[in-house]
Amino acid sequence: MIRQLTEKDRDQVMSFAGDRPAENLFIFGDIEAYGLESDVVTVWGDFDGQGALRSILLRYLGNFIPYAREAELLDGKAWADVIGRCSALTCLSGLQSLVKKILPYMSTPVQKEQLCYYAARDLGAPLDKSTARKDVKMLFPEEAEKIIALRQTIFSNHAETAATLQKSMDRGISRTFYIERNNEPVSSVSTTAETAGAAMIVGVCTKKEYEHQGFATSCLIKTISALQAEHKRPCLFYDHPAAARIYEKLNFIPIEKWMMERY
């Protein structure tokens, strides 16, 4: 049985998804920020005959994310029907094994598909700080514009605004570490969707003329160290072999592939 969930279901939902906090980072983050009953977030649950959850589906604006502990327990057709009744669909994303169960039943044509690795770092994994540069700074919210300017010179499709980044920092769900040269950022690393137990690392970048000098790695080490001190597990996406080598050296372990279907 599928029904829309309310705040009365919060404990059951968080317990159901709580065994995999890294995989459910976005689900936790959205529920912590907006609750289960808002215009921004809707959550549905599929229950068995004994009232236990088999799977859940979260909507954040037009983005839908499914979760089940085991893929065979996720009813792809039923969730496709739920999504189809919503007019706001822009993206279906999640662990590949779960999204693939829904895709055959989706009637809306996909405009773009993206598949990347989803990796996380155990809280107890060792972190060698001896190679990190000493000139890594932490960004203040009012300085957001200069990091956005850096990213726009590196990422061709960068869409985040300084106001959005500052708002996320003010809410405590994002932070940024960076290195400057000539009073301008040349390398940076940010977090987003920070929850009580995990955080997504994003925006890892370095200007071309400063590459291969350990700038991004130093920012990553600083970020990981800060998260580790707060018992937050670092997570990230990657699809580039060079990035994979950097992350593997920092003890990030691939969880599963993450699939994003844009509509």
TrEMBL record:
GO terms for molecular function: acyltransferase activity, transferring groups other than amino-acyl groups. Pfam families: GNAT_acetyltran. Residues 134-263 form the N-acetyltransferase domain. It comes from the Bacteria. This is GNAT family acetyltraansferase.
